[in-house]
Amino acid sequence: MALRKSAKTGLVGLAAAAVAATAFVAPARAASDEATAHKANVHKASANKHHHRATQRAMDAAVRSGTPGITAQARDPHGVWSSTSGVGDLESGAPRGKNDRFRVGSITKSFVATVLLQMEAEGRLDLDDTVERHLPGLVRGNGNDGRRITVRQLLNHTSGLFDYLADDEYSRTYLRGDGYLEHRYDTLPPEKHVAVALAHKPLFVPGAKHSYSNTNYILAGLIIERTGGRTYEAEVRDRIIKPLGLKATTNPGNGIHLPRPSSRGYSKLFASDPDRIDDITEMNGSQGWADGDIVSTTGDLNRFYNALLRGKLLPPEQLKAMKTTVTSPDSPDMAYGLGLTRLRTSCGTTLWGHGGGMVGWLSMAVSTEDGRHQLSYSYNADWGADSMQAIVDAEYCE
User: Fold this and answer.
1) Residue 29 pLDDT > 60
2) How far is residue 319's CA from residue 315's CA, in Å, rounded to a whole number?
3) Structural domain includes residue 42
4) Is 157 within 8 Å of 212 (Cβ atoms)?
5) What's 106's domain CATH number?
6) Which positions make up the signal peptide (predicted)?
7) Which of the two residues, 179 and 398, has the higher pLDDT score?
């Protein structure tokens, strides 16, 4: 799920051993090795901390600007750097945790696209299949026609389908103000999201241009289920989460709680009262589903994108298709592939990844194309998107 009020989030995730030659010298050598290793680790940690100092400054600046808290992890040839800034709980003042689990929002789309591309590699579907072939009769009405929309067009947001989150009644009921507070625990089947979108005429003829629509990935999730004969969540779990050992990554289903450890999530739900902040941590996971329901950590997101970009999850043909992009007139500095975004930093570095927004959360996961330098981070609030690019630029440019 990518929230309309946070559209900018779319830009907007070792071992060594020694054996002593004799029992006599072993204790002395062990002590010496231990001291040497300790010095090396301290030096490496210090160097790594220095290497990411600009990123820490950008995170701290975002907190000073009003974001409650941020958790981040970077992986590069210097090692793994994890850090936080600000608080995870405004009431208690507890800091954000380095291993916090959070709702990743539209970063979920990279997982969904990966599953469909795996299914294509297995010969179970084709990117140029029509939606009608897999979901007969579902996408009809008001000029919408699943016979004219392909799976590829769902994944790269060129279908022309209306974004159900942009429906004013849906937004008032499930995303804003008293409506959200009243309905946050409702279970919403994916078909409801589709019905909301189909109550609107298409934005354009399929394939004519790019326009980000969460409806596309609700349909993608339904195609996964029709093709695989089981739930979208089971396919993501068995194809990605388990093989990569993403132990902190889950699909919430219709559960309302975040797994521990986690921080609280906050939202400014009332436009008429911009200083009001509501704790919205608990919500029904089905309100996001395949367009944005996954819960994860910065470490797991980095591991996922590392595996994806290094070809560990997809054959070369499918990975090439995933990185074949279209551009939007609304975002000329960003190009969208199949569940994967290509963006460029202020210093010209090309990155791949995805951003995500949920009520109460903003997140970003990016990587260099070779998977050697990655950054993932999470805000426990759905405002402050303007500061997110600064963190990316600090990591890759300073």
Assistant:
1) no
2) 6
3) no
4) yes
5) 3.40.710.10
6) 1-30
7) 179
Strand partners, 87: 95
Burial-class residue 72 by CB neighbours within 10 Å (0-12, 13-18, 19+): buried
List the domain range (segments joined by +) for residue 147.
Answer: 4-13+54-397
Residue 20 lies in a domain: no
User: Which secondary-structure segment (H or E) carries 336?
Assistant: strand 331-336
| Structural contact between residues 194 and 159, judged by C-beta atoms closer than 8 angstroms | no
Q: Is residue 365 part of a domain?
A: yes
User: What CA–CA distances, in Å, run from 357 to 76, 117, 232, 314, 323?
Assistant: 25, 24, 21, 26, 22
Q: Residue 335: inside a domain, yes or no?
A: yes
Write out the two tokens for 176: 């804003």
Q: Whole-model pTM?
A: 0.89
Q: How confident is the model at residue 334 (pLDDT cuts 50, 70, 90)?
A: confident
pLDDT at 328: 78
Q: Are 132 and 152 in contact (CB under 8 A)?
A: no
Please check whether residue 154 is in contact with residue 217, taking contact to mean a CB–CB distance below 8 angstroms.
yes
- The stretches of the chain forming alpha helices (DSSP H) are 26-51, 53-64, 108-121, 131-134, 151-155, 168-174, 177-183, 190-198, 214-228, 232-236, 242-244, 298-309, 316-322, 388-397
> 390 CB contacts (<8 Å, ≥6 apart)?
58, 61, 62
pLDDT the model gives residue 112: 98
Closest alpha carbon to 197 in 152, 146, 252: 146
DSSP state string for 231-256: -HHHHHIIIIIHHHT-TT-B--TT--
**Model pLDDT, residue 166:** 97
Question: Does the pLDDT value for residue 226 go beyond 60?
Answer: yes
